[in-house]
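From the pipeline queue, job 12 of 40. The input is one protein chain; the requested action is below.

Action: predict structure.
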Amino acid sequence: MRAPRSHTALETSPSRSTLEDSRVPVRAKLAAAWTSVMFLYIYVDYFQLFTPGYVDEILAGRIHTYDIGQTFVVIGVTVVAIPSLMVLFSTTLPARVNRATNLVVATLYVPVSVYNAVGESWTWFFGLTIGLEVLILAFVLRSAWTWPRRTPSPATGAISLDDEPLRAAQRA
């Protein structure tokens, strides 16, 4: 005969359908966010080709008020290259430098993203895409700002393995 089980035992036992929710490292979150920004840049530029008159402007050698030339293209490549490099930097730089770099670059890219909407007539399209870019950049800022710190356990002196090493002054 089975022993009766209390209803609390049933509530605390793991269900077969419970999904594992492991912690994602900050570096992976940042790299994924910068990758998302890059996808948005690429697709916004691609879909912008479908806006009326845009291809005609390109064929005429102008985009908005800018002449298409080497300077314009170099600036365009630079604006796109920085977030793509941030994917690499987010996974390879030391934690302290990584955090600072993400905070600075994401802060500078919010106005860059907003500037791209200036003078555009397709407000729904650009409002949505730039809104998404700004939300992702806010996620980068929050993730970098709240980067977990390594702290020794008071009971064992053990250090968390998730973050940057303790400074020598903290160890003493």
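Job complete. The chain has one domain: 25-145.
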